[in-house]
Design goal:
71 residues, single chain, 2 helices, mainly alpha, flat
Length: 71
């Protein structure tokens, strides 16, 4: 297996795992909010994917400021 084939295989595996993770979160949202319409579920999923308002420590440049967990 060449280096390029290995990278291609790794990228394909990453894509499959990402899709599986997204689908698992979609199912989690549906279980947590059974009365939501499809569009609302997808909106929550999109918010989870972007997480622009709540970056994970280490996902941003600069110093990491750990926040306390919300109840």
């Amino acid at each position: 297996m060449t280096v390029h084939e290995k990278y291609r295989e790794n990228a394909a595996t990453t894509a499959v795992l990402m899709e599986a993770g997204i689908e698992l979160m979609r199912q989690n949202i549906r279980r947590s909010h059974p009365t939501l319409h499809h569009e609302q579920t997808e909106e929550l999923l999109s918010s989870w994917l972007w997480r622009a308002d709540d970056p994970i420590p280490g996902d941003t440049a600069g110093a990491v400021h750990v926040r306390e967990m919300k109840p």
